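#struct-queue
[09:14] JT: dropping the first one here, sequence first, then the structure tokens:
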Amino acid sequence: MNKPGETTLEIDLSALEHNFNYLKSRVPNGIKFLAVVKAFAYGSDMIAIAKRLEQLKADYLAVAYTKEGVSLRKAGIQIPILVLHPQPTNFELLIDNTLEPSLYSPRVLQLFLATAKAKDQEHYPVHIKFNTGLNRLGFWENDVADVVNQLTNQQSIKIKAVLSHLAASEDKNEAEFSTLQIQRFRTIAKKLSSLLGYMPIRHMLNTSGILNFPEAAFEMVRSGIGLYGYGNHPEIDAKLKPVATLKTVISQRHKIEPGESVGYNRRYKSDGYRVTATLPLGHADGIGRQYGGGNTIVWVKGKKAPIIGNVCMDMIMIDVTDIDCKEGDEVLIFGREHSAEDFANTGDTISYEVLTAISSRVKRIIKS
């Protein structure tokens, strides 16, 4: 195994391709596929991921904010890019970079329409978001007629797509609620289509929606976390491949005598003769303080090594008493063999948070 020599995040593009093909296989042929690359492609490398997805013939990419979409355009990405949560202050920039906004409120719609008119746009493509139960962003069902009325007798923008978002698609106990959301969305899209005279692209399903409610694929589906190797269920996780692997090295070993402490606030106190190792990785790199205290493990030579004491800004300490290791040896934080989801569970959180928290100062290594 090649030793990284420093803390690295390996980005496996072949794993991304595997996940993309698997998720596409779970929806009917002909359904468009939107790949979500927001938040630096879930903490990995947005440009490298987007370029591979474009090669794989993804139909759309999605980001959260306009700035992310601009970065993709500057990198040469040509396929359509949806901005999920655009802010009016960036509407001119959004149009200048041919990004497609998700418009989610009367104010946002009015301001974008005014911007499009001021920039002499014709039929600029927009997505209209409706709230069906997540209660986060979106128009209400009774706003359909008002939305269409605002767009009557103008040529600046055109509704290309209509979308909503499932609230609990991964939870089988909430299947009834998810089904209700889908029914609401069908009704909204039908009303909108009737008033417009055409049916926009409809998209509602996220990763867990693709897996659990494929009958609601409509014309397009969206996937984020699934592309990066996590399916919100152990059976699905087994069929996906984690894209990101976080590794580091042992900087120094210490022999600790009974009663000695390790790290800030003396949180760890040895109950015997122990050997500890210090790693160049800390909460400034995305490893939160909740992972200290012995509940979270990392892997050295294939063996478990608990994180002890408090996580520091740039370092963590682990117990390697029963592991034959030396300074410079590789340490696996999470990856294919031991997932970010397992790591996250020990900190009472989810893989999304662990992945997206990895600092930009951690070196990225792209593997084809």
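[09:21] JT: and here's the second one, same format:
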Amino acid sequence: MQNVSKRTILWIVPILIIGIFWYFYGPKEEITDNEYITYIKESTLDDSSIKVGEAFSNSCEEEKWVYFQTQRNQHVVEFMGNCPSEKTLKKVNLQFIVNDHQDGFEVNVLLLDNVQQSQEQRDVFIRDLVSL
């Protein structure tokens, strides 16, 4: 009888550990509407009068805005959609890192068709998007 209880414990403990890790580090539901997304959409880029949200909605298709917080507690807003680049529509992922008090942001990573672009390529893409 004592062997059965030891075996049972040896199965339950790992399952509990896996369950705890899944709860804390497993996939989370996407946040598609919050104050950080609104802040980015209402902000302007490159001393332009056009708002970020307008620029993307005027030029891109199937747009989606997602908010998440990194392990380092950075507030990230990511735009996903299909936007024109080099006269073709490309899958775009562009991340913005928002300051804690929503008093500024930094344009971060740009992926075009899942390929990371350099800072110069990112800046050209944004300039072209805002000027459309």
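[09:30] RK: nice, looked through the second one.
[09:31] RK: The chain is about 40% helix and 30% strand.
[09:31] JT: good to know. The beta strands are 61-69, 75-85, 88-98, 105-112, 115-116.
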